[in-house]
Amino acid sequence: ESRSAGELVVQMASHSKNWLLEKVIAAIVLGGGAMMYGLLQTREQNWGYYYNFTLGALYGLVGFLVGFFLIGWILKNRKRSRGIVWKRALELFSQLTPTKGQTAVLIFVSLDEGQVAIVADKLIASRLPADYWDGPHAMIVRGMRSGNHCEGIIEAIQEIGDQLATYFPRQSDDSDELPNRPQILDR
Question: What pTM does this model have?
Answer without folding.
Answer: 0.77
